[in-house]
Amino acid sequence: MDDTRVLNGSYGECLNDGKWLTNIYKMTADLELSYGDVKMSGSRWTGQKLLGIKGTGSISGYKITSELVQNAARITNDRKSEYVTELIFKIDDPEAFGCERVRLKHVKFSKIPVVGFEVGAIVEEEWPFSFWGVEWLDTITEN
User: Fold this and answer.
1) Under 8 Å CB-to-CB from 111, ≥6 apart: which residues?
2) Are residues 5 and 95 in contact, defined by beta-carbon separation less than 8 angstroms?
3) Alpha helices per DSSP H over 2-77
4) Whole-structure pTM over 0.85, yes or no?
5) Residue 91, domain extent
6) Which of 36, 68, 77, 111 is most buried, with most CB under 10 Å away?
7) What is the domain count for the chain?
8) How confident is the model at residue 142 (pLDDT cuts 50, 70, 90)?
């Protein structure tokens, strides 16, 4: 292993509908797989059948504007639909073998941080979300 090729998270970016969210410093996304038991005839073994996939994640960052919270909070108006977006995770470390970009589709925030602060501290926000659909736009492969 060439240790210089290990990805440095400082080169990570999060884009919301194509707009770079420069205040985001942490992003995670996971796929949770759910299985059902399948009893096997003539065996003590129990098989597993994939029944579903659930995408969850979160973004964390510094509070700079009210734009994202206003978009997400439009659901509080009974005449408006919920805010559904897409997020693109990008990490482009110049020492790595390349750039990775992953598109998360149909993103819905499950918690909206309306307001919060602490005297003498930088204001930060965490945005948990669910999604369905993932697409690798760019992948990293060893040359």
Assistant:
1) 126, 127, 128
2) yes
3) 67-72
4) yes
5) 12-63+86-138
6) 68
7) 1
8) confident
